[in-house]
Every structure is written in structure tokens, then in C-alpha cells.
Amino acid sequence: MVGCGDPAATLVADASETAIARADVSAGDDLAEDATVVPPSGVERIWIGVERLPENLMGAATDGSPLLWAVPRQGFELQIHAVAVDPPSRLAAVHVQQGSQAVSLAAESQAWTANPDKKSWHLTFVAMADQLTTGQWQFSAQLESAQGTRKASANLVVADRTADIDPFEAVDPWLLSFNRDLAGLQVVAQGEDVTVITTAQPNGKPDFDETLAGLGLQGGDAVFNQAIRQIFRQRVRRWLHTFFVQDPATGAMGPGSIRVKVLFDGDDLSEWPPAQLSKMAIGGLAPPQPNGKQLFGLAKIDPWNAKANDDSLPGYGVFTFSFVKAAIGQPIGLALLRDLLPIAGGKPFGSLPEDAVLLDPNLESKQLDNEPHKARIQLFLLEMRLVSLAVAAVAAHEIGHSLGLIHPGLPPQGLLGGVPGPWVVKTQDEHHLDTAGPNLMQTGDSFDPAELLANTPFFGPVESGYLRRRLLVLK
């Protein structure tokens, strides 16, 4: 407690570096999905959330077990949500109690903020470092409205973010390599069908480059192909920066960023001692699975991110040959790629003189209405977006495992891995979690590729809270 246990202490918002910065919430993060629309100025009900968790993650599991989240004594955010069409005319009051100790919290803003669902509003409260002692606290909210008093409560565990449960005591560097050569890939014709043949032997070509060629992205001379390779890698890097809530272009981090430093082979590594580097390989053939499923990636699970991990070893990393198999194995994917596959009479990118425009660094923002080869440029942009996004999403998913996701079981000792509840879109195993939207930590077989056309995948609210060090997993 502030002031050596002063029961009248007040927790207030702070715009300084000690305040908890909030990253943008993805469009897939619906804060009150099932809220009922009420008449203007009417507040149907209020509820308490922590660290941007939606309402269905503040209740109980299917078996009735309560969700008791752990938050750090070093500071966290609380949100009070009001289900109403119009913003409430008054601010909510929040009181925190542990036994005989009581604290009143003050809102950081004097105005309610609309939630993405457009059915509810929220106020944010910030518990500053050391203003609550460790232990279980009851949080009670009250809002006076014309329809009467609205009340809500929630229990949270405040714990010390000690080194053994802190996934990011310091920035964690991850080196991604695109150069391994463990296998070979060919796109071949079998009658009227097109199929992919792989061999589990190195052939002198980086597996990543063979992936690009198999998708029609390496049809030019050495200079063109190398330029496309670099453009693709840069897109993967930008996606990873976005997933980790960093500046997409530079990777610069703010207070709300996930503290992963994305490094590629060829970068200057002088700042990072080799023993500190975790590694991830991009490219190659997935190991066969007993259930016959096609793996897109595999990583070592490291609870609490206790050490540097090597996911570049054979059998680990991102298996890019699986992307070629998936694309060509689906009718819609083959239809898009057929014009690029020489085996099907197509012309890969780089094989036509007009493909020089594809190397324009401003191509994405270029006005294409007067371009004579508009359709081919649009196909290139679509393929580059989808494939680079898919590669980056799988890389982020596997890095997530090696950072500690998903802890199985109920909070505060778990992050809901394998736990059934109202938040589940599709049942997952104990190391995955499928909440609303294109969540990076759901399994591949529960992912809808169509979502990539209009949405960017993201770490869901549970995973984001853990990775931002605002939700703790206790031992």
C-alpha cells in the first residue's frame, strides 16, 4: 500500500513512463460480444476487466471453476465496462479490499471510451507499482445511473513479478535464419494434376529459396530473384514487428511492446552474445506425424522463457514446404498459382519483361489503374501478402511456444491451455488457445485462411497480457 499501508491511498492514472502503455487492440478483440442493446442513456450493467481481457475471460470455466488472474505488484490496468448505447453520464467508482485494508481507485480519464463492439464503454484505472501488497484482492465497481445503481466485482491475485516467473527480464533476441538446406522440393505434373514432390536430402539450395520458386516467385535472373527474396524477408520482418506491438518499419519498442528483438541472418549481431540468442530456422520439410497431419512449424516449449532456445535444429522451425503443399493442394490455391507454374504452362514472376515493376519499393502504394499489367501486379501483391503473413504468423506462433505459451490449466497457475469455457472457439490441446479472431496461438487446423484476406493475426488478450508481463503465471 502507498504511504506504508495508508488505507485511504488512491490509485490514479499517470502519463509518465510508470503508467502502463496500451497497445492497439485488434479488431478481433471483442470486449462485450454478447452485450444487449439498450435504449439511449440506459446502462444495462457493468463488469470489471483486467488488462483488456474480454468479459467471457473474467468469469468461470465450463465446470464452474473461477478464473483467478494474477497481476504484477509492479503495476497493471483495470477496466470498468458499461453496457450501454450512449456513454454513461457519470464515472464509475472502484474500491479494492483485502481483509481490513481498503483502497479507492480513480479513473485515468474523465470520459468513457467506446469499445470496438460499439455496444459498450470503458474507463481505465491504473494500479501503480507497489500500491497494492501481494495477495488476493476483491475489486468492486459501482456506477450510479438514471436506471439505478449498477455494481460488479472481481477477484485478482497481486503477485511479485520475480525473475523466475518473468518471461522478459530483458529484451529477448531471436535470430531467424533463411538459409538451411535439409531437403528438396519440386512442383511436377501428374497427368492433368499438379503436385509437390519432396526429398529429405540436402541439394545445395536453401529450402526457403525452393519454397519461393515452388510458388512462382523466383522466375527471373539472379539479381531479380535475390531482390524478391529480400522483399519477402522484409515483409516477414514487418509482420513480426507488428505481432510484437513494435514499430513495423524499425522494430522500435514502446512501454506496451512485447520485448522480442527480431534479427535475421545477415544482420549485425555484435550487440548480442551468441549465448543469449534464441534461434528459429525458416524453410524445409516437416517431419512426418503419426496422425498424418501436415505440420507448419514446431518449437520447444519453455515455460516462463527461462533460457535461450534453439528452434533451428532439424525437426524444428517453420516448415515452408508445407505452405507449397497446402497452396497447390487446394483448388483455390492452385487456381491462383497456375498462371505462375511453368509445369502448368504459367510464367513465374521475373520471367516477363513487365515484371521489372515488381521491384518498385513503392509498389504497394502505387496507383495501378493505368498499369497495363494491373492483374499480374495485383496477383503478385496478393501472393506476397498472404505467404509472407503466413510464414510470419507461424514463426510468431512457434516463438510464442518458446516464450512459455500456452501454460496449461486455470489461472493463476495456467493460461487456459486445454481448459473448456465460453471463450473457446474450437477445442485445443493444452498448449494452444483459440479465442475470437485470428489468434496466433491457435492450432493450424482451427485457423481459417480466409481471415488473412482482411485481418492481421494477433496474440489474443491472454497471450498478450502474459507477453507484456501484465498477467503472471505463478508456480
Write a brief structural summary.
It is built from seven helices and 18 strands. It is of the alpha/beta class and 475 residues long. It is elongated and about 75 Å long.
Task: Summarize this structure as a short list of keywords or feature phrases.
475 residues; alpha/beta; Immunoglobulin-like; 2 domains; six-stranded mixed sheet; four-stranded antiparallel sheet; 7 helices; 18 strands; 18% helix; 21% strand; elongated
Walk me through what this model shows.
This protein has 475 residues and is α/β, with parallel strands linked by helices. The protein folds into 2 domains: 164 residues, Immunoglobulins (Immunoglobulin-like, Sandwich); 232 residues, no CATH class. The chain is 18% helix and 21% strand. The strands form 5 sheets. It has a 6-stranded mixed sheet with strand order 1-6-5-9-10-3, with no helix packed on it. Strands 2-4-8-7 form a 4-stranded antiparallel sheet, with no helix packed on it. The longest helix is centred in the C-terminal third of the chain and has 29 residues. It starts with a helix and ends in an 8-residue tail after the last helix.
Number of helices: 7
Average pLDDT, to the nearest integer?
Answer: 90
Structural class, by secondary structure, is alpha/beta
Q: Write down how many β-strands occur, each being a DSSP E stretch of 2 or more residues.
A: 18
User: How many discrete structural domains?
Assistant: 2
Please trace the helix and strand order, writing H or E for each element: HEEEEEEEEEEEEEHHEEEEEHHHH
The helical percent reads: 10-25%
Low-confidence stretches: 1-40
> What is the straight-line distance between the termini?
24 Å
- What percent strand? 15-25%
Query: Quick one: overall form?
Result: elongated
What's the Cα radius of gyration? 25 Å
* Major sheet characteristics: 6 strands, mixed
